[in-house]
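To make this tangible, we now present a fold written out as C-alpha cells:
***
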Amino acid sequence: MTVKTAVAATPFGDAVQVQGETVTVRDEQALSGAGMDALVREAVFGSDAAKERARWLIWEIGQAVGVRPASIHDLYLARGKGVTKGFTVPAINVRGASYDTARAIFRTAVRMKAGAFLLEIARSEIAYTDQRPAEYVAVMLAAAMREGFRGPVFIQGDHFQVNAKKFAADPAAEVNSVKQLAAEAVTAGFYNIDVDTSTLVDIHLKTLDEQQRLNYETAADIASYVRSLEPKNVSISIGAEIGEVGTNNSTVAELRAFMDGYMRTMKARGHEKLAPLSKISVQTGTSHGGIVLPDGSIAEVKLDLEALEALSKVARDAYGMAGAVQHGASTLPENAFNHFPRIETAEIHLATNFQNILYDHLPADLKAKIYAWLDVNAKDERKPTDSPDQFYYKTRKKALGPFKKDLWALPEHTKAALAQAYDRTFGFLFDQLKVGNTADIVAKTVKPPRQHHRAPSGAIAEDDPDAGE
C-alpha cells in the first residue's frame, strides 16, 4: 500500500492546495478575494504557529504565481550603463495600516503597468511600527497578490543605520547589531539594503577623505557581510550614503572621496570582485518628515536640484551606479516631483505624507485616543517651544505599533475613503516620476529565481494511511 500525503486546508478552498511542501495554485482569481485577507491577518495577528504557517504559505503561493521578492540591482546597473533612463524609482515607506496601504500601491501599479518601485522600512520604523522583516514581507506579497499584481516585488531595508553615539561607545557591538538586522531581513526576503553609515562622517576633519573614512570603511564592512548572505542567483542591491539627511548638502567631491575610499577598502580586503554598489544616497536640502511649523504646516524646502543632478551624473559616469538617491521627499510641494526624472535622479524616498493621509482619515475618537497615548508615552520628546500641532506631528509615528490592530480594523467607510486618497496620491506620484509602463523593462532586466522555504513545523498535513493502495 502506498501512502499519500494529505492535502492541507487553506483559506482558498480547492483553488490552492498544499500537499507536503508543494503548493499548487489551481485558480489565481481566488487570490484576489477574502481568502487572502484572512491569510494575511493570520500572518500578522495569529498565534506564533499560525503566523509561521501563514507567512510560509504566502511566500510559496507567491513563488508559484510569480510574485517574488527581488533585487533591483540589475535594473540599476542597466541604468548606470545608460540602457534605460527617464524615470525615478519611488521607495515607499509603508508604516501604518500596511496591508491597505500596500494594496493601494499595487492597485496603482497594475493600473499604470508600473514595475519599478520599492516598498521599504527603516531600522527605526521596524521598531516603532512593530513590523519585523518576516511580517513585512508577508504583508507586501499578500497585498500584491490581492490586487492581481504579477512580477518582481522589490522590498528594501531603508536606513540600516549605525547609531553614532552607540558606535562611539562600542563600535563592534553597534556594527554587529546592523549586521544581525541585515541577516534577519535578507532571510525574510529583503533583497535591497540601504547601508547608512553617514552618521559617522566628521566634517571637522581636514580632508574629505578623513571626513568620510569611518563612513566608507564601515559601509564596506557591512556591505561585504550583506553579500555573504545572498541567496543563490541573487545580487542584493546595496546602497550607501555620503551625507546624513537633514544636515549639510552633499558635493561631488564628497561623493568621489567616499566612493574612491570605499573601492580601496574593498580591494584591500580582497572583496573587489563582489558586486558593486548600485546607488548612493545624498543630502540636497530635505529632511525626514519636513520641518513642521507651530500651526502644523510644513516649512518650504529649498531643494538643490543642480547639485542632485550633478551627483547623479558622476555616480553613473564614474562609478556605474544608477545615480543619486534623494531622501525625505514625500512632503515636497507637488510641483517638485516632475523634476526628479528630468534630472535623472535614480530613486527618491517617500514616507511621511502617507502617514499624514492616514491620520487625516482616522475616526476622531481613535485619533484622540492616540494623541492621549502620546501625551503620556512620548512626553519626554516634547520641547518647551512645541505647539500641540508640532508635538503630535513629530511623535505620532511612534503610535503606529501600539495601535496596529486598531489601524487594521478601521471601519469600512474609513478604509474606502483612505483607499481613494491613496489611489490619487500614488497615481500622481507614479505619473510625475514616470514609472508607469516600467513593468516591461523590469521584466527584461530582473529575473528573480524561484526560492522555496522549508515549511514550519506543523504546517504540513499528516500522511493519510488510508489514501490509496
